[in-house]
TrEMBL record:
Family listed: In the C-terminal section; belongs to the PPC synthetase family.
Organism whose genome encodes this protein: Magnetospirillum gryphiswaldense (strain DSM 6361 / JCM 21280 / NBRC 15271 / MSR-1)
Gene assigned in the entry: dfp
Needed co-factor(s): FMN; Mg(2+)
Portion held of the full protein: 184 to 406 of 406
GO molecular function, one term: metal ion binding
The protein's name in its UniProt record: Coenzyme A biosynthesis bifunctional protein CoaBC
GO BP terms in the entry: coenzyme A biosynthetic process; pantothenate catabolic process
Amino acid sequence: LAAGPLKGIKALVTSGPTYEPIDPVRFIGNRSSGKQGHAIAAALARLGADVTLITGPVKLPDPANMRVIHVETAREMLGTALGCLPVDVAVCAAAVADWTVSNASKEKRKKDASGQPPPIELAANPDILATLSEKGSARPRLVVGFAAETEKLLEHARAKFVRKGCDWIVANDVSPHSGTFGGDFNTVHLLTQGGAEEWPRISKTDVAERLAWKIADTLKGHP
Ligand code: PMT
């Protein structure tokens, strides 16, 4: 592991989308590429942290100098994250599906003669960020969430900040014109107990670098 301000710090990062199967060949997913989460994992590793990256299905190569665990569903991501505890810091950048398909089929669904589409029933997925935020004695010292919003960015992000119980939340605009999903740039606000910081539009690598240094400053001050 590299020397650096995060030497001796264990970090968990979630990244990418989750896929919720409808049947063996179809799924419900989302547009996350994993670029932001992977960049955060890489930035933390560069500062010397011992990083575990839990990623949903992405097209990116595994970043170097960390443990990378590949998962598909939100439930797998949660189980894997809980298995990584204790850690000092958790950053939940994954775009986790809020719902899973409760009537997923073991076999490929067939078109029936009536031409009616089959019903897809949804059930709520567990919330990984909220679960990590309430873990009692195994709670990471710092839990960082993201809020992906297409409108009323700060209002919706503040509501999530309170509801999920994390320490910081990175609010990002993911409206179609922003190009955030899959793109190389991000425009974020960092919400902490101290208030909201507006960051300029910068590359996802720079968001990651800035966040990693902030994490280092915070954890250094509170052993
Ligand atoms: O992957 P990229 O293409 O680079 O795009 C980056 C990104 C836009 C996906 C990323 O920056 C981002 O915003 N990730 C969070 C996406 C998301 O699911 O946001 P949300 O507002 O729906 O969820 C809020 C927080 O709760 C997130 O930290 C999320 O990881 C977490 N969550 C949500 C649902 C759930 N069941 N479990 C969770 O842990």
